[in-house]
């Protein structure tokens, strides 16, 4: 078998090895592949197994690569693949489910803790000499905030939302949750409520819901108006859950005290995005998922997916 990896760069930052795939075929690795059908077709060539993260595999590419027998997506999302056409051609498509659940929940809390404690800022100021020059035993530039006793409302209470909820509960927070599907594991952590209660009663709102028509832009000027003054908003779910300008305006006015964002409505973030100039807005470049442990799980699950396909018993398939 010939195996081609079209875009390894999101998975491997020179701290992992694809050697675990070598026993399964002749391996070719591309750091990146432009989203150009002709280039993608030429790089796949006569390979039977195609591994991709974000490089689209559409009908034209599938038709132009008749040797293709299997597509492995090194991510959970598989919208870049024409899965229905692949199914028509008898090509299984597998993904990597739930590899970063704990990492994403941890990152949501990390954003929240940075807002509450401003560790990065105060460390920078100490290194600049401000503490040495102050003559005082302490100083701070921002309020240091307790989470104990505060209420966090989590929109979307699946696996990741529940990780965030468990950590928040350990801090002594009251946890409210809203989800289409309530379950016992969720009830052990949180009180299920409607969205209006989340908006009205939460000191912190964390977004872990899928991007559907009814959640797109769920953080907007109308819902923000229902929130407590000084609310904190955390989004490391999906960027388009937030209306950027409305959140920026709320940060400017102080209605929203701070926001921690790891995802944006357009990625990479546009230089003219209003949130870049908004006060108390912490933005990271879509890295909640990217712990080395999570990426290692992606690597080894992909290996297992390929091995299962070669044994004639594909796993984690999304189109069969």
Task: Give structural notes.
34% of the residues lie in helices and 15% in strands. With 320 residues, it is α/β, with parallel strands linked by helices. It has 2 domains: 2-98 and 292-310, 3-Layer(aba) Sandwich (Rossmann fold), CATH 3.40.50.720; 101-283, NAD(P)-binding Rossmann-like Domain (Rossmann fold, 3-Layer(aba) Sandwich). Strands 8-7-6-9-10-11-12 form a 7-stranded parallel sheet, with helices on both faces. A 5-stranded parallel sheet has the order 2-1-3-4-5. It is globular and about 65 Å long. The model has no long low-confidence stretch (mean pLDDT 97).
Topology diagram in text:
Blueprint lengths: L1 E4 L20 E4 L7 H8 L4 E4 L6 H6 L5 E4 L9 H6 L4 E2 L6 H17 L1 H9 L2 H5 L16 E5 L3 H12 L3 E5 L5 H4 L3 E2 L2 H7 L2 E4 L13 H5 L5 E5 L8 H10 L2 E6 L19 E3 L8 H19 L10
Parallel strand pairs: 1-2, 1-3, 3-4, 4-5, 6-7, 6-9, 7-8, 9-10, 10-11, 11-12
Helix pairs in contact: 4-7
Find the CATH topology of the largest domain.
Rossmann fold
Distance between the termini: 22 Å
Q: Can you tell me the CATH architecture of the largest domain?
A: 3-Layer(aba) Sandwich
Strand content: 15-25%
- Note poorly predicted spans: none
| Helical run tally | 12
Strand order of the largest sheet: 8-7-6-9-10-11-12
* CATH top level class name of the largest domain: Alpha Beta
Order of helices and strands: EEHEHEHEHHHEHEHEHEHEHEEH
Q: Specify Rg, calculated over alpha carbons.
A: 22 Å
Mean pLDDT: 97
Helix content: 25-40%
List keywords for this structure.
320 residues, alpha/beta, Rossmann fold, 7-stranded parallel sheet, 5-stranded parallel sheet, 12 helices
